[in-house]
Amino acid sequence: LSNNKWFKKNLNQKEVKGLHGEELLIWVIAMVNSEDFETLEELETHLKQDPRKDLDSKYFIDMLKETNACSNPKAKSFGIILQQKIIDAIARSPPRHPDLDKVVQLCSDERARSKLIDICSHRDRLERIPKPNEGSAWNKFNSSLESSLAPFVRGKCRAVRLEAAYAGCIMQGLEQCGVFESPPRTTPSSSSFVKNVFTAALHFSEDMFASMPALVQTLIQGVSNLPTAREEGEMLKALVRKMLQVGKVAEKDDALTTWTSQIEDALLKAAGSSIYEMRWSDAELTMGGKDYKQLHTKVKDALGESWLSIILARSRRLSWLPGHPIQFHPPRPRAVLRDLAEKYGEVLGQRLKNEVLALTPEAAAPRNTPRGEARSRSREREVPKAKAKAKAKAAPRAALTVFGGTDMPLGQALEGEYYKDGMNHGKFIFKKIGEDPTGSVDAVFLYFWNGEDCKEDLGWWFSDKVGGTEAFMHNPNPGAGSQPPFNGWDKGVKIQPAAFGLGAVKGKGRAKPSAARPGPVPPAKRPREEEERHVRLKQWLTQLDDGKGDMMAYYEALKEEFDGDLTQIAAARIENNPRASPVEQVEPDFWEAIKCTKGVHRLKFARGIIALPAA
User: Fold this and answer.
1) What burial class does residue 9 get, using C-beta atoms within 10 Å of its C-beta: 0-12 exposed, 13-18 middle, 19+ buried?
2) For residue 301, what pLDDT is reported?
3) CA dihedral in degrees (286, 290, 296, 301; nearest 10)?
């Protein structure tokens, strides 16, 4: 056939265009084996121009096997075209392509491989990963892992976003199945569940574990909580061996690496320097705010609804143990591996145990200390008298004013203006502006503690450290929204919003405490004044929606948070941003304080607040 140029004579353009499926496969195999590469090159030109999208990829895969086995440059060139055709077919297929394993093994062209990874890591496919949110769901999850991620592992090809998406699913799945409850629920303790968890984890390669320390930490701590884990000794040993290189390898996905770093920076900045944790919901709210909206949109569009779990699986500066807030310190995978080796040493064997114990543990995480020693409502401590004064800094915008009450020098240490300095347990932290006039403490914080570790600790605390074991004063009232209670403090201490609002515009009407003794508590307003104020508030709310009555749903919240005073409500306006939309010209705290989430209601409120006389 080759000597007589049979293919050249019989393969005209019309016949080439008509070839498809098994017939085309036979022709290509014959050309390669008869070494008629000149005609194969002609066929390549026609195949490039073929507009058909219904060609079966399985025949292209068989052709690719033939061309890969041939060293001729023209055969290799034909193979690259075949790879492009195969990947185009996979892009149109369901997530679980039956031949993905073969394609990953056969794809030698770097551009083709990169395109294949992008297709398999697309948002639509990431969002279709089944969630292992209960014991029976892990079988389906493992099946998805085997068909989608395992081919890349076997092909020694990294699909970084796909890996992180599956890692995030495992971390969240362990939480939803009760693994981190004490004790674990019955289902997670079962032998079949433990096998499924090990099976899922063993799909990941050494390189994958090395680049996702948070996954290693979560898996090992989860396994340590499961009593039946020691019954799966061989699987446990195989998993630990894969994790020994954790933290040593970093693969490239420039966009994902950049996003992870930017989100780490954003959350750490939003939290401030005085706290070590943030709830998941607070992290999502922070990234959804106007300061980070563009980054949030970009990341969510690329990674889907589970973007935060993907980022946390990849993070090296934040750690997250399911069931707990996000921690502002690096994961500690080597430390938890060493703990496991001590606990399950007889299962791992002496040699593997020694390898694990030879790992250098990470530095201990900073403690966000429980409030255990400061439980009494009235348990104040004496203010130390010999601390150096902090250097004066430019004062941020005040959010609260504290009047120090009757106790000296405690009152002097507490009184003053406070600004927002991050969040703790879902509410704002407030830090005192300027130096303590007594020179007794470096800083004073007012913050909320949710009492999950001890009910007696629930409430707001004055202290020189967020989460410290000692405190100046405690109020068990959780307050409204993200704000502390204004009354109910000991020793006559009172709190007011700055300029009687949620945060006054810099330089406009702040309430100022005295420099020496606490100012007098403003007298209670007469009943008649209150009645008139509330009537005006009702009239204002009625006008906002032309008498429909929808806005009256916020009446009680406005009375509670702002005394029903339109002057205080007007102080929520941000006056230094006239080009912003109406909603953006109102302090974000205002919406949280009155629990207003509907966009149409926010717009009506914003227009009404802008129309009010300036506070």
Assistant:
1) exposed
2) 92
3) 140
366: pLDDT strictly greater than 80: no
pLDDT score of 164:
92
Edge-to-edge, what's the strand order for the sheet holding 277-278? 277-278, 326-327, 319-320
Report the pLDDT averaged over residues 192-200.
89
What is the residue whose two structure tokens read 């005006």? 536
Q: Measure the CA–CA gap between 595 and 481, rounded to whole angstroms.
A: 7
Strands 416-424 and 494-497: unpaired
Pairing of strands 445-449, 427-432: antiparallel
At residue 27's C-alpha, the angle toward residues 26 and 32, to 5°, is 100
In this prediction, residue 114 carries a pLDDT of: 85
Per-residue burial over 532-558, b if 16 or more Cβ lie within 10 Å, else e, is: ebbeebeebbeebeeeeeebeebeeeb
pLDDT tens for each residue of 304-359: 988 999 999 989 888 887 767 888 888 989 999 999 999 888 989 999 999 999 98
Q: Which residue is it, tokens 């500066």?
A: 317
- Does residue 409 have a cis peptide bond before it, meaning omega lies within 30 degrees of 0? yes
Distance CA 344, CA 398 (A): 54
CA distances from 301 to 216, 255, 519 (A): 27, 13, 53
More confident residue, 36 or 295: 295
Q: Give yes or no for a contact between 561 and 262, defined as CB atoms under 8 angstroms apart.
A: no
Q: Determine contact, residues 502/399, Cβ cutoff 8 Å.
A: yes
Contacts of 273 (CB under 8 A, 6+ apart): 421, 422
C-alpha dihedral (488, 494, 497, 500), degrees to nearest 10: 110
d(CA 90, CA 222) in angstroms, rounded, equals 36
Q: What tens digit of pLDDT does each residue of 465-504 get?
A: 887 777 888 998 888 777 888 888 888 888 887 654 343 3
Q: Residues 342, 348, 354, 355: is their CA dihedral positive or negative? A: negative
Q: Name the 3-class secondary structure at 169.
A: helix
Q: For the whole prediction, is pTM greater than 0.90?
A: no
As a 3-state breakdown, the chain gives helix, strand, coil percent values, each rounded to 5, of 50, 5, 40
